């Protein structure tokens, strides 16, 4: 029901996205999107690019008088550093030579992409493979969040690990976790763990190194029935995992207790089911069914079961290092130290915001698939009918 496309290069004129399928009548402003764009750019351990770019979206179509009109929504984000790259990234044929990038960086798409597309100037690869592209996905995700908010569904994130330091002292309530994370430089709701993480980042910076980590996404109050058990490509956990794995530097995803479930007995993993009629009002579109645990992370058989959906993603350390790793020139085949672009020491807090965006898009997509509607009012009627059905269970 929803789909989007992004385009643009890291140091080109702009990056942009086209989002299709948002129903008409949804209130949407540039400010709604800019809030998340700003959140993506902050975080302890970010690099020099964040001092240059102050991302702001321009919505150029699909919205009129502050509301969506059902047509594709076009959004552009201009690159402020473009003026310094007009020659290197010129769109027209040039007679003079430009500096070629021929030394692939370990951990990047440089070498594999250069071979695949038969490009000896690896800038043609690194410009598009850059995480700069994720600003567009955050813009798309912000629109998806706005849609979900109409149905009281929230998507929030927080950092649970950086460099092996775990956040342990966390509130049980997702709202409390989110509020603490929003005040944190590392989007970590555990103040003690945050200080240890910051010390580790400082140590990595002094050594010219980088750090990765793990962030958690929580989808609050999703209805039962998103996704499907019937087709492999419609399973909700599969779709969420693919969305998160598509983010640059993400190397692993787990739902609920995830990998830890492999070490436990079945009796310790599976969430027992209870029923109490009076729980309907509090638990929204679940009927009277509930669970006392949520080891499944809100998804069973590829379908949301009405509990909060909990999913985590592991991010590898940023591969561009101030102390570069060894590499081989793609043209001369001589060994060199890998070339260095501006980079971060740790970008896990920003990746968490990007994770929110891609997850919100997927949840909005499966929500539209289930409840349909060309307008917000039609969508509300369809959802209301489903809730009425659930109230009778």
Automatic annotation (TrEMBL):
Function: This reaction introduces a second double bond into the aromatic ring system.
EC number, UniProt record: 4.2.3.5
Membership in a protein family: Belongs to the chorismate synthase family.
Listed name of the protein: Chorismate synthase
Gene responsible for this protein: aroC
Binding site for NADP(+): 40, 46
UniProtKB keywords: Amino-acid biosynthesis, Aromatic amino acid biosynthesis, FAD, Flavoprotein, FMN, Lyase, NADP
Presence of the UniProt keyword Transmembrane in the record: no
Residues annotated as binding FMN: 128-130, 248-249, 301, 316-320, 342
Lyase as UniProt keyword: yes
């Amino acid at each position: 029901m929803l789909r989007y496309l992004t385009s643009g290069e890291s140091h080109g004129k702009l990056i942009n996205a086209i989002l299709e399928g948002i129903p008409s009548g949804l209130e949407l402003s540039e400010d709604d999107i800019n809030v998340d764009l700003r959140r993506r750019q902050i975080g302890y351990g970010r690099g020099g690019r964040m001092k240059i770019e102050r991302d702001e979206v321009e919505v150029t179509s699909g919205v009129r008088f502050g509301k969506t009109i059902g047509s594709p929504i076009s959004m552009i984000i201009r690159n402020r550093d473009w003026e310094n790259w007009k020659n290197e990234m010129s769109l027209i044929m040039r007679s003079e030579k430009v500096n070629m990038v021929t030394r692939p960086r370990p951990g990047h798409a440089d070498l594999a992409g250069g071979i695949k597309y038969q490009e000896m100037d690896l800038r043609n690869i690194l410009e598009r493979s850059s995480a700069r592209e994720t600003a567009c996905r955050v813009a798309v995700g912000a629109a998806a969040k706005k849609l979900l908010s109409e149905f009281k569904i929230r998507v929030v994130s927080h950092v649970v690990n950086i460099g092996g330091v775990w956040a342990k002292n966390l509130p049980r309530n997702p709202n409390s976790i989110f509020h603490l994370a929003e005040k944190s430089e590392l989007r970590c709701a555990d103040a003690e763990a945050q200080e240890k993480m910051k010390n580790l980042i400082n140590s990595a910076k002094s050594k010219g190194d980088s750090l990765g980590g793990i962030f958690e996404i929580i989808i609050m109050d999703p209805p039962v029935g998103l996704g499907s058990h019937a087709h492999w490509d419609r399973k909700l956990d599969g779709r969420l995992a693919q969305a998160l794995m598509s983010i640059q530097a993400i190397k692993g995803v787990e739902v609920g207790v995830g990998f830890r479930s492999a070490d436990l007995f079945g009796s310790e993993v599976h969430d027992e089911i209870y029923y109490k009629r009076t729980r309907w009002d509090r638990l929204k579109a679940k009927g009277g069914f509930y669970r006392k645990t949520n080891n499944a992370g809100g998804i069973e058989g590829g379908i949301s079961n009405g509990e909060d959906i909990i999913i985590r993603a592991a991010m590898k350390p940023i591969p561009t290092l101030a102390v570069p790793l060894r590499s081989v020139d793609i043209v001369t085949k001589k060994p060199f130290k890998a070339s260095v672009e501006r980079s971060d020491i740790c970008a896990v807090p920003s990746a968490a915001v990007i994770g929110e965006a891609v997850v919100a898009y997927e949840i909005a997509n499966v929500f539209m698939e289930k409840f349909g509607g060309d307008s917000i009012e039609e969508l509300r009627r369809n959802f209301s009918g489903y809730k009425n059905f659930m109230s009778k269970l």
